[in-house]
Each structure stands twice: as C-alpha cells, then as structure tokens.
Amino acid sequence: MSAITPTTPVPGLFEIQAHNWKLAILVGLIVSVLSMFALPPEAAFWITGAMAAMVAAAFVVNAYRRHYYGGLLVAPAIAVLFVMNIFPLLWSLGLSFFAYQSNQQTIRFVGLTNYTKVLTDSLKAPENWANLTNTAMFVVLTVTAQMIVGFLLALMFAKQFPLRKYLLILVLTPMMLSVVAAGVFFSYYYDPTFGLLSYFIRLFTGEQFILMDNKAGAVAGIVFADAWMWSPFVMLLVLAGLVSVPKYLYEAAAIDRVSGWRRFWSITFPYIRGLLMLALLFRTIEAFKMADLVILLTKGGNGTMTISYHLIRIANEQNKTSEGAAISYVMLFIVIVLTNLYLYIANRRTEGA
Amino acid sequence: MTAKTKLQGLATAAGFALALFVGGATTASAEDVTLHMAVPDWPPTRIMKKYFDEQYKPPSGNKVILDVDFIPWPDFYTRVNASLTSGEKKYNMSVADSQWLGAFVEGGYFRKVNDYIEADPALAKTMADIHPSFYNAYSTYPYTSKNIYGFPQFPDVLVTYGRKDILCDAGEQAAFLAKFNSKLPCTGEEIDAMDWTAFENVGKFFQRKKGEMLAGKPLDDDFYGIAFQAGKGYDFSSMQINGFIWQEGGDIWDETKIPDGKAEGVVNSPQAIKGLAHYLSLIQYMPPVAKTGTMDIFKSDELFREGKVAMNIDWIGLGEASLDPKTSKVSDKLVFGLPPGTKGADGKLVRWNNLGGQPFVFTTWNSDLQNKEGMEFVKWWLSPAIQNQFAAGGGQSAVKSVYSDPKYVTYRPWNRAWAAALDWQKDVWHVPQFFELLTQQQDQFDLAITGKQDAKTTLDNVAKFQQDLLSTAGLIK
After folding, report:
1. Nearest to B85 among A103, A187, A300 (CB)
2. Whether ipTM exceeds 0.90
3. Of the candidates A299, A313, A317, which has its C-beta nearest B294's C-beta?
4. pLDDT of A263-277, one tens digit each?
5. What domains can be seen in chain B, in order of their start residue?
6. Cβ neighbours around A248 below 10 Å, total
C-alpha cells in the first residue's frame, strides 16, 4: 500500500458507513436532544455521552481509512483534553447562566443575571473589584520581583565558578517544594514571637517586629515568599537562553571592542527575549491565580484578598456554583486578553527587529 | 478432558453450589453491614474508632464494620462538602460542625432520625439526658425545634488555661495586690470568679519585655499576660466575640425568631457594639501576632504551650497537647477554670459563651439496616460506660448522668469547669446561609482586630450585610 492517502470516495450524507462522520454528528445531535426532552436527566447525560463517543469513533475510523495517521496519533491526547478540560469548561460556562447551588437540588435558567450581579451588585461588585485590584497588584509586584531576581541569578549562573553545580541545585529547591510547605515555613519566618525575621530585627531595635500587621508588610511578605519560590523558574528559562548564545559572537564583539552594555543589548538580549517573554507569560498567568500563599499567610487579611481566593470561598465553601462560574469566566476573559496583548507586543517587537 | 473428569468436575461444582446455598441460608440472619463515616482526624475520633473496634458487639448479631475516613481538620469541611454535594453518596455517617446542619439538611443530605428514636425508648431516654445546650445545638434543626438530626460526638466549651507557676508566685501575688488592690487569681476557683476586668489586669500586669523579671527569673523573651482567639480564618474570632456580645446583653441575629427577627438594630445594637469594643480593647495585651489577624485557636494554644503567655482562653479539644510534656513546656504547671464573665446588674457574673464541639449525623441514602445498626452504635456510644471511658481517655460527655458523676472531674484537670459552663452555652446560627454569614463577619471582625475600623462601623457593616442576605433568602420579613 502506498503512503499516499487512498482516495476512498466521500460517502453521501445518509450512506451508512462506519466512517461517515457527518451522519454520526447528525444522528448524535438528534438522539441527544430527544433524550434530553424525553428521558430523566441522568439517562440523558449518559446517552449524550455515548453519542459523543460514537461521533469520536466515526472520526477515528475515517482517519484510519484515509491513513491520517498523524491525526490518529494525537487523538488520545485530544480525547483526554476534551474529557478533562474542555467538557468541564463548557459545562461550567453553561452553569454560569443558571441559578444553581451545588448543595441544593434546584436549578433555574437566569440568563446573564449572575454576570450582572458579579459586575454591578452594590454589595458584591465593590468587593470583587477590590479583590481584582489586589490581584493586579500582586501580578505586577510578584512578576517584577521574579523577573529581576531570576534574570540576575541566570546572569550569575551563566558564568563558571567553583561550586556552581551545587549552588544551582540549592537555588532550584524552592521551586520543587510544595506551596503549603513554603507557606507554613514563611508564616513562622514572619511570626513576631517565634520568627527569625523578628529575632534579627530585634537585635537592632530591641522590639519584636510585626511584619504582617499592615497592608504594605503583608503584601511584602507574600511577594517575597512568592518570589523566593518562583524566581528559580525564571532563572532556568533565562539560563537556557544565555547558554545558547554562540561564543563566537562575543569573541567578535571583543575584537571590535564593543562595550559590555552594547554587547548585552545586541547579542545576549535577542537570544533570550523569547524565553523572557515565555517566563513573563507563565508567571503572569500563575500570579493571576494566586490564592495558596494568601490563604496560608494572611487568610486574605490586611488588604491581601485576591480574586482567586474569593472564588474558592464563593464556589467551594459557600456552594454558590453559578456565581463562582460567572466570576471565573470574567477572570478567564481578562487572562485571555492579557495573554494576547503580551503575544501581540512580543510579535511586534520581533518583526521590528 | 475425558467424560469421567467432566462428570467429576460437575459433581464438585454442584457440591460447591450446594454448600454456598446452605451456607448462605445459615448466615442470612447475620449480615455484614459497613458504615462509612467521615470524621476529622484528631484524638476524640481516633478514640471512638479504637473503642468500636475493640469493644463494640452489635446486639443484632450482624457483623458491623465502621469504615472511618480520618480527614485533617483544615480540609474537613471542604472534603465533606464536596463528597455530599457531588452526589457520590459515599458516607453513611459524618461528624459535622453544628452550624452545618441547616445547609446540609436543606440540601437533602442529612437524615431526620426522629422515627428511629421514637421506635427505641432506650435511645429516647439517652437523648433526654443530654444537656439542653448541646441537644439544641447538635440535634435540632431548625434550632430548638422537635426535628432531630445529630448526636454528640465530641462536645466542647471554652475554658481558661492558666500557668500556676507564675500566677501563684508569691512575689507576683504581692506586686499584683499592690498594683490593682485585688488578689491575682491562682487557683481554679479564683479563675472561675474572674470577670473581664480581672482578665485585663492580668494582661496589663504580665506584659513584660525580654530581660525583665518574671516569677523571680529574668525573661529570655517577651512575655504576655493573656491570649484568646482573634484570627480571620473559619470562626476563629466569632466564637469569642459572640460571648462578649451576649454577656453585655446584646445578641446576634436570632434564628429562633424567623421571620420577624431583624439583623439591623439587633446585630449592631449599642450592647453588641459595647461587647465587641470590649473584646477589641484586650487585643493590645496579647502577643503581637494578634495584630496580624492570624491568632487563631491553634496559634494562641501554641503560644501558651511554648510558655509565652500566662492565661489563654481556648477549646478543651486542644487541651491534651498542653498536658503532654512532649508538646508542652508548661505541662506540669497548669490550672484550669471557667472563662471570665461580665458582672450583671445584680453583681453576679453573666457567663454566656459560644459552644464548640461536633455532633455526628446520618445521611439520607442509607439502607434501613444501615440506619438501624448506626442507631445501635449511637446508643452504645452514648451509654454511660463508654462515655465515662471516653471522658477518661480525653473526651467529653454531654450526657448528664455521666458528667454529674463525682468521678468525672478526676479525669482531666479542666473537667472541674465542665458542668458549670454548660448552662451558659449558646450557639451561632444553623441556617443554610451560615457560611456566607460567617465569612463576611470574620472579614469585618478582622478589619477591627487589625485596627482598620472601630466596633460600630464593623457591626453596622455586618448588620447591613445580614439584613440584605437574610431578607433575600426570605428569613427576615
């Protein structure tokens, strides 16, 4: 058999063939919709699932018969992605248009009410807005701190020096710790009675030092802990860029007696720019979701409440599933806009260069 | 395979089937019943499981297995909530905080058990012997109604933990008398008699810097007189603040007055504001971590066990660790008493406090057999013999005939305060909106504790929120 796709004729819409995926979609849709109206919800759920599986099977058979082996190879990954990510995502999108609480048995369609409540309600909107502003503050502060520290660490580790290998492992450890362990560690570190920080400051002032009793201190505490954990991640990415710069460029620059500053901007930076953007993107998305350290260090007190922690309370603790879903979609929208903005700027810079 | 071996095989199979059938018939009267139970992971539930495995013989002759999931405390609500609301129907029984009753009863997860109690006079008698404070808080929903849902698993109240070595030191006693013209409380009885002013004086008196003298020895670290819960998490300030509000004659939103009871005007009444302001005025005498809003029940307990404070008000449930020399630097210096009260108009102490502890409940999807075996287990658990054994092993009992027995106070040093405290216990709300009410209130209290707003603003905000939420929910007309 040749590697070229055999030209199996495309079946007509109503031709019963295992690879007739158009017919499968049609039948699947009709049966699913009918079952939703005619059967109890639990049965309809499984029938719709079975129909989805049938359509997927038709696609697979079609791909196999036409020798689309590439497609077949990624199919399992896509199936997992669909079941674990895309389906729950769509499901929660659906829920955000209903009045539904996970601890109650009733559900009612309310359209965009959840969204208007989240964005305009006189009690809820200011709180959501304040939490969002706090989150933005954390994004700016933690990501800036991580980028600077990570970048400087990478510059340091790009050179050879004694014990470099061991120091590198040491610097990478925070990233491998669980956030909970780091959070507990830092909560003791900052504790005015038991903490190291208070102990050292008292050597100079004679007073116990209370870091977390005001907003600036609490934010500084969280930002420091987060930077401590995630700067190594930025370093790792930047380091990969730094070691990929060809040596001969630096040698040529040395012959031309180019200044260190110029050497950095014209040789080093273009090589690491892509990776810097990647680190920035990853860390921004992660920082936007920050809740763990806040829960462990301040429980959201002293003006450190983030939108993610707020969301955990709404959706998980108070069981207000629909309202939680609405907040998550507003968040998702913001993150997507931000990400695309980043990518746009990154691409424009590359084209300009 | 020959015909002969085939026949032999058939005969064996038939014999086997017959054996199974006969065997099945004989064991039909003794079935295996498994009760899946979700509990928090701590000594009171570990002890229960241990006693069950070692001692419990079901009167029905069935084989009853108690399959317990020990869930760490910080995760407990989240895990139980997720399990119940996801519909997996995994647990037949669960330990629940009393405040959860409304949310899970209204959702259709917790089973009303009146029918089983009515059918069993012995169990009904035991229920009648439970102290009314606990009975109302743990068993009834709506609060104080006739509907029964839960049974006491580990009942708990707040007590004052004190350091004998410091409080009874002759030098400190003399200095305290000179300064405040009253005796520094040293024995359990003297601690019982304390009001908040005496507690505040202890706070003022023992606030010492590193290097100063304490009970004749120089301090190697700062020392503080008093501590109680003032944390933002879960209910780690409400449980203390409610006591202050009730003692001043104020009230929280009263769920027994649905739908006529209001939140605005009640929650932020002048008495309630006075109670909260009193609570806030004591924070300055506590270890500085109180100013960060993270002084929860575990932190104040830790500070006490590490020997950093003279007195701490905390749940009995955390007490075992302070008695154990492995986890406590003060294990041999302890004295316990009632939490302070507020002097009423007649000069007697008003001692209202919020009760703690947990009931356990049944879920709605159990088979009748599971419920019956569960009830037998409950009856056994609440029987005087087991309750006494539980109390001697570090638990507490809400059963009157057990805790009024003279030997009860000998089990643990804090038991001397137990019976006296029970009449002064009330509980926070049990309505389904409990978690929203609590979260908002804790956030507001945290703002006050960390010095961002005063008591009046705080309770005004709480009242406004509760009025709005409860009106929307139809609980306030």
Report:
1. A103
2. no
3. A299
4. 888 888 888 888 888
5. 31-155+357-426 (3.40.190.10), 158-354+431-472 (3.40.190.10)
6. 8
